[in-house]
Amino acid sequence: MDDRRGGMAAETTVVIVGAGPAGMSLANFLQRRGVGCVVLEARDREYVEGRQRAGVIDHRAEEIFGEFGLAEQVAGGAPLETLLEIRVGGVPRLLDVPGLAGGRPSRLVPQQLLVQRLIRSFLDGGGDLRFGVGDVTPRDLDRERPRVTYGDGELSCSYVAGCDGFHGVSRRSVPDGVLTTYSFDHGIGWYTVLAESPAPRYPLMAVSRHGFAAQFARGPHASRFYLQHPTGEDPRQWPDEYTWEQLRLRLGDDGLRDGRITGREVVDMRSFVAEPMAYGKMFLVGDAAHIITPMGAKGMNLAIADAYLLARAIVAAERDGDVSGLAGYSSACLRRTWDYQEFSRWYTEMMHFAGDESDAFRRRLALARLDRLFSSPPAAAAFADLMAGTAV
Ligand code: RFL
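Above: the input record for the complex with RFL. Below: its predicted structure, written as tokens.
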């Protein structure tokens, strides 16, 4: 190629499928290193920039953006995380997570803001990003020059980056029998509501016999709440009054101010991993290869960390002919993925079982885990290290 401005490029170095956190991180990293790429996104810009999900970029992700001179664009001025509050039966306990991690704070950057900023930065740099592209199909992945066809267009490239999320086409383009997949249902239902209710002082998680609840800031005047709900029930039918009543009960806060509920979603407490994260010249990045529960806030950060490793590997291959990074991409990403899956499961069990009176033994184990976090500095430091994000 490199017709990155023209929109009609027939050849490029990397075709990136999907313009979420994984795809837009990768696109910006490659652009900053002078590697040509085209991003193909199925949805329109408004949809992609409005999708609200994650709220935190961990310290490791900020370091990664910093390495590409993007930290100011994506995280400049974003509030730093300070303390984490875990409320047990209405009694608050505070954990200085950044301090315990050796001064490595995470930042509050809502996912839609991160994506908006990455899109703007890529387009300002002359990047080729095509929205509303239908029928994207990766082909010839085991050949030297794969192709990606879409609508009535076609691109030939050196690498395909499958950044199209769990339901995307990339993983499904791998021939049968190549991937081993692992799925796990945590057996817990989560209901999340976005509300015009003042942000909590600190990120807040609460253990109670009424079920788990959490409250996180989404800007100064809005909160995202999470409520555990009995599986087999659709909590989106709950009257608002009942939702607020449950939140007050679980958070142990009679004075919790309600507000207009602007979003309701049921969140799958499911985990998934596909191995390996590469087939021929295609590399899977982010949710296309793995999903993780929101407990621990690692999904978006894993997507950014995968994109970082892939960008580094492609740059080394293109500039120096060093293909070792590409050969090791899958195993390096999977090591961190499983580490975070374990962390997320550990955290999920602790926060949900500690209030669960249906199984007294399991409950006592979870309470012991929670106590250790507040009484053992090494245990607290290990927790904080994972919250800050582990280095590659
Ligand atoms: P995404 O965000 O799903 O983006 C994929 C993009 O690909 C497009 N696409 C296609 N494009 C072209 N052709 C096709 N055939 C295509 N198919 C799909 C899609 O339109 C989309 O634009 O995947 P990506 O980039 O890997 O990013 C992953 C993150 O979105 C995800 O891990 C996080 O949202 C998970 N997550 C959280 N992660 C955190 O780090 N911290 C959190 O606090 C956190 N909270 C959450 C979350 C996920 C949630 N939900 C709804 C699952 C809270 C929630 C409620």
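Notes for the reader.
The two ends are 31 Å apart (CA to CA).
The pocket of RFL is lined by residues 17-23, 40-43, 48, 53-56, 111, 136, 163-165, 168-169, 192, 265, 267, 286-287, 294, 297-301, 303 (CB under 6 Å).
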